[in-house]
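Appendix B. Chain record.
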Amino acid sequence: MGMGPVGKKGVKHDINITPYIDILLVLLIIFMVAAPIQQHDEEIRVPKPAPPTQPKDVKPDMIVIDVETDHTIRINSQPVALENLGPMLFEIYKRRANKNLFIRGDAGLPYGEVFKVLDIAKRSGAADIALLDKGENSSPPVTPPASN
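Structure tokens predicted for this chain:
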């Protein structure tokens, strides 16, 4: 601290913060050097990309509704009219414990068309509904999602 006489006004009472800044910079350098050396307890697991040969087959217990760009609807590759979709899904789900459903549609399809199918499926008894994009590698997962 500067306690020396400063002219005729008396003792200077300001705090000298230079040593504090020096200590702060030394601590900053220590932490910057020590941070990359620090070991973490858990390993980071990055998901692996899907194998290029995904099975295109749909399990027989899965229900996949395809909505085409020309507004045709198929349940597991079987064509169905929109007005018959509700009763058909109701008949399927009243006999099943697994109430999972996949709706696969083209990305260029208006959302309203997919929403109609989604609404009919929900009213017909489907519990878990997943939306899929109709693409080259678009297929339902190998294991169905767990139902609640």
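Further analysis of this model is presented in Appendix C.
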